[in-house]
Amino acid sequence: MVHLAAFRVGIAALAVISGLVLNGLTAWWLLRLVRSQAPPLYREYRTWAMAISTLLVLVTAGAGGFLTYVGLRDPQRLPDALSVVVAGGMLLLPIGVSFAARRVAGIGGVIPVEEPPGKERTPRPSGGFSKSRIQ
C-alpha cells in the first residue's frame, strides 16, 4: 500500500485505455449498424454522428479514468466503493449499449437462437468483399 500513489496514475491511465477500447469498439459497431440500417440518414449526418460518438467515447473513458484515480486516494480504504462501481459501470456500459442496439435493430439478444419454422430471417448483405465488388 506504500506505493499506491505511484500506481494510482498508472491504474487510472489503464482505465482510460480500457474505456477507449471498449467504448470505441461499441461506437464503431453502432456506426456500422446505422450505416447498414439507414444509409441515407447516415450519409446526411455522417460527420455529426462521428463527432458525437467520438466525444462520447472520450468523455466516458476520461470520466472512468478520473473517477478511478479519485477512488484510489486512500490506501486504508481499498477496495474503494467508487472504484468498484466505476469499474462495473465501465464494463457494463458497452455491453448494455450493444444489447439495446441489437434489440432496437431487430437482431435479437446476445445469444443467437433458432427461429421457429416460418419465421426465417432474410440474410443481410455482409460488409466483406464479394466477387462482384472485386471484379
Question: Can you put this structure into words, describing what you see?
Answer:
There is one protein chain. By secondary structure, the chain is mostly helical. It has one domain. Helix content is 70%, strand content 0%. It has five helices and no strands.
Q: H/E order of the elements? A: HHHHH
Largest sheet: none
Question: What is the 3D form?
Answer: elongated
Assembly category: single chain
Query: How many domain modules?
Result: 1
SS summary, helix count: 5
Strand fraction equals under 5%
List low-confidence stretches.
none
Beta strand count:
0
Mean pLDDT: 80
Structural class label: mainly alpha
| Distance between the ends | 62 Å
Rounded to an integer in angstroms, the radius of gyration calculated over CA atoms is: 20 Å
Percent range for helical residues?
over 70%
Condensed summary:
The protein has helices at 4-37, 39-44, 46-71, 81-105, 131-134. It is mostly helical and 135 residues long.
Question: Would you spell out the secondary-structure blueprint of this structure?
Answer:
Layout: H1 4-37, H2 39-44, H3 46-71, H4 81-105, H5 131-134
Keywords for this structure?
135 residues; 0% strand; 5 helices; elongated; mainly alpha
